[in-house]
Amino acid sequence: MLLLEGTGNLAFGTVILYYAGLIMTYSLASMFFEARNVLFMAFLFLFLAVFKKGLVLVMAGMQDLGQPVHMDAESVLVQFAVHFILWMLIYNLFNKYIMHELVRRKKPAA
Hints:
By secondary structure, the protein is an all-alpha fold. The chain has three helices and no strands. It has helices at about 15-30, 40-60, 75-100. It is elongated and about 75 Å long.
């Protein structure tokens, strides 16, 4: 992450702010909602898509890079769809091939 950070047109720190926002949002929201819920992940990915677009617009505006000052719904929806589809695929593969049923301890005979 740090190797690629700052190699584009934006100043150093944009991706770090994005990942910090991801960690904070997930941590705070998972305290209130079940983290494996599909609806929770959908709202998380939608928030992150809007957050990324807003962060890029703010950072580009601070550097006078001439970015359009509107948030197009197409790029937000594409990023949301890619994140959501990849999460569904990885989650299902993890449950199928890696996660096994929990081993329950036998209760001691009384």
